[in-house]
Design goal:
The protein contains 12 helices and 6 strands. The strands form 3 sheets. Strands 1-2 form a two-stranded antiparallel ribbon. It has a two-stranded antiparallel ribbon with strand order 3-4. It has a two-stranded antiparallel sheet with strand order 5-6.
Length: 282
């Protein structure tokens, strides 16, 4: 994935600095020997090309690496080695304690807009093996500075999709397309769709404006993370997350009811933007 992205950016005149790692911690690079190493390698393939390697469970064009850059290693984009040691944990969205495998299942349901592989399936076992291997040596249960996405300061102005549209055209459209539908090379997305039928659905964490803003500020434009102001990051996140996208899998059959149960703040579900009731389409 990184090689394909790199080739595209070089072709359009951009360069990519090294992605960041946590000071004092380095994820392993050599696979473990034997069958475990084979499973770890398979998990990395699924992580970097989820539609190609686990298409039965993914309807979006996103891969795990779309939100967790550099194969889940980059400390600025919710690195897997900082997340894995925190499971099992209680999550408010689930309203219960969940395991790492159940958290990955949620990623398939929401970010991949697909279906959850069964616990113990080859796909889930491979991903769990890969993430466990990445976190080998990390402190169990310790909240590292790199867990999640870096914090974003409160906006000086309320996030505004119209301002964000201008930022998108200037800073994001080169890679994601003016229609936000991503860029393909050799039949594979090197930059994913940000809205529309092949993007994450309304239940995904990235559909929350703050989450998207934190990721954008730290990592976008790709290879130039930190180049946007905090306000621009909030605004472009508001623009992206106020576009139509696939339905929330928890949809009750009524947009207002679903909004009240699952979308009371932080996103645009159930709002009318540009004459469109968001969440009304499948």
């Amino acid at each position: 994935m990184r090689a394909a992205v790199g080739a595209f950016l070089v072709a359009v005149g951009c360069t990519i600095p090294c992605l960041a790692e946590e000071p004092g911690f380095r994820p392993p690079t050599a696979y473990p020997p034997g069958p475990l190493g084979e499973m770890v390698a398979k998990g990395e393939q699924i992580f970097t090309d989820t539609p190609g390697e686990a298409g039965l469970y993914a309807r979006s064009a996103l891969s795990c690496e779309s939100c967790h850059l550099d194969r889940g290693r980059d400390s600025q984009s919710s690195p897997m080695w900082a997340a894995v040691p925190m499971y099992p944990q209680y999550l408010g969205r689930n309203r219960r304690v969940i395991t790492l495998g159940q958290r990955i299942q949620d990623c398939f349901r929401y970010s991949m807009n697909g279906a959850a592989p069964d616990l113990g399936s080859n796909v889930l076992t491979a991903l769990e093996s890969y993430l466990f291997w990445l976190s080998r040596g990390a402190a169990i249960g310790a909240k590292t500075p790199s867990r999640g996405y870096p914090l974003l300061s409160d906006p000086e102005l309320d996030p505004n999709p119209d301002r964000g549209r201008k930022v998108f055209v200037e800073k994001c459209a080169l890679c994601h397309g003016h229609d936000g539908q991503g860029v393909k090379r050799a039949g594979r997305y090197v930059f994913p769709p940000l809205w529309g039928p092949l993007s994450y659905n309304w239940g995904a964490g990235m559909a929350k404006v703050e989450n998207a803003g934190r990721f954008i500020k730290a990592n976008m434009p790709f290879g130039l993370g930190g180049g946007l102001t905090d306000q621009d990051a909030w605004d472009v996140a508001a623009f992206i997350d106020s576009r139509p996208r696939p339905q929330d899998p928890r949809f009750t059959g009524d947009v207002a009811e679903t909004m009240g149960k699952y979308h009371r703040d932080g996103d645009y579900y159930g709002r009318v933007v540009d004459g469109v009731l968001l969440g009304a389409s499948p």
